[in-house]
Design a protein that fits this description.
The model has no long low-confidence stretch (mean pLDDT 96). The protein is α/β, with parallel strands linked by helices and 351 residues long. The chain has two domains: 113 residues, Leucine Dehydrogenase, chain A, domain 1 (Rossmann fold), CATH 3.40.50; 196 residues, NAD(P)-binding Rossmann-like Domain (Rossmann fold, 3-Layer(aba) Sandwich), CATH 3.40.50. Helices cover 46% and strands 15% of the residues. Strands 1, 2, 3, 4, 5 and 6 form a six-stranded mixed β-sheet that branches. Strands 9-8-7-10-11-12 form a six-stranded parallel β-sheet, with helices on both faces. The structure holds nicotinamide-adenine-dinucleotide (NAD).
Length: 351
């Protein structure tokens, strides 16, 4: 398939190839859809084996941002950037500043932020060349670390799932299996334990396990046992594609609600969850707290307003679950449809 056919099939607006031999910059910025607002999404730096892989990644991720911004009701479009290179070896101030100059050429059609391989210090260098940057930590007006907000949104989305399944949003007495005990889980478990849930967790990193045990005294099992726990809710907060034809058979829970990206290996796995009577909170809707948080930098950041807004993920998940039940469709398909409808409606209003 040629490139234009590929990008027109999924409705991409603009792909920018950024190159500077002197500083070793090879980057791609993809703006998927800017109907709802400026294309916003982090910049990832990764040693892609091939340029095709980098292109595929930026296309996939930018499209995902369109859906995340839309389902969350934000006035933002979807975009993403990738820099081809090893962040440990190839990252230099010159390269980052040159990337910033490319972002600036788009005059706000693309707003960049952090992603894998790009940290707050890197963004500060990008920011020297362009104002179209969100999520720099430690500077005035910054929204800070997004993980606690992602956790707050995930917690609220989980409560909406509980209300849907058990008729009450309370998580008191619920047994919750948490996969991954990193930044998001650490805050999330705080909310769960406070509400009286019983938590079992797993992580491949012994330090993460020790930290969660010390702080919250939760139960711990081996990483390969966490999804099969006898529990009410499974919360994936580590890896993508963990809901697949093998793992789904092991699940004993009624709800899957976690922050990990791309949890479903395939769309069909979402349908299988539905057939098994397991309520799945679509990942990009429940984990949008980080994006919603940086969005608030655009109008002058205020943490209280950001937490309030992110708490609205409860309603987003509730709306998805109600409609999915009514239309007898898997929740991830309904979330996609709702995100697409918002964009179509905005387009209609404009024309
Ligand atoms: P993190 O890297 O701090 O935590 C992930 C944890 O998962 C790590 O402790 C890691 O050791 C563990 N892990 C890796 N493989 C595992 C396995 N096989 N079994 C059990 N544990 C394993 O990341 P985070 O910031 O807490 O994010 C968690 C997830 O949420 C990620 O998938 C991330 O992409 C997604 N997410 C995060 C944010 C955010 O604001 N941080 C926003 C949206 C989505």
């Amino acid at each position: 398939m040629n490139l234009f056919e590929r990008i027109s099939n999924d409705g991409y607006e603009q792909i920018v190839f950024c190159h500077d031999k002197d500083v070793g910059l090879k980057a791609i910025i993809a703006i998927h859809d800017s109907t709802l607002g400026p294309g916003t999404g982090g910049c990832r730096m990764y040693p892609y084996a091939t340029e095709d892989q980098a292109l595929e990644d930026v296309l996939r991720l930018s499209r995902g941002m369109t859906y995340k911004a839309s389902i969350s009701g934000l006035k933002l479009g979807g975009a993403k950037a990738v820099i081809i290179g090893d962040p440990k070896k190839d990252k230099t101030p010159e390269l980052l500043k040159r990337f910033g100059q490319y972002v600036e050429t788009l005059k706000g059609r693309y707003i960049t932020a952090k992603d894998v391989g790009i940290n707050g210090d890197d963004l500060a260098l990008v920011r020297r060349e362009t104002n179209h940057v969100l999520g720099i930590e430690g500077v005035a007006g910054s929204s800070g670390d997004p993980s606690p907000l992602t956790a707050w949104g995930t917690y609220n989305g989980m409560k909406a799932c509980a209300a849907h399944v058990w008729g009450t949003s309370s998580l008191k007495g619920k047994r919750i299996a948490v996969q991954g005990l990193g930044y998001v889980s650490f805050s999330l478990i705080g909310y769960l334990v406070k509400e009286g849930a019983s938590v079992v967790g797993a992580d491949v990193d012994p330090q993460a396990v020790a930290r969660a045990q010390k702080e919250y005294g939760i139960d711990i099992v081996a990483p390969n046992e966490i999804l099969a726990q006898d529990c009410d809710i499974v919360s994936p907060n580590a890896l993508g594609a963990i809901l697949n034809n093998l793992s789904i058979r092991e699940l004993k829970c009624k709800v899957v609600a976690g922050a990990a990206n791309n949890q479903l290996a395939t769309d069909e796995d979402g349908a299988e969850l539905m057939r098994r009577g397991i309520v799945y909170a679509p990942d990009y809707a429940i984990n949008a707290g980080g994006l919603m948080n940086i969005y608030h930098e655009l109008d002058g950041y205020n943490a209280e307003r950001a937490y309030d807004h992110v708490g609205g993920i409860y309603k987003t998940i509730e709306d998805i679950l109600v409609r999915a039940k009514k239309e007898n469709q898997p929740t991830q398909r309904i979330a996609d449809r709702m995100a697409e409808e918002r964009i179509q409606n905005a387009k209609k209003k404009r024309s």
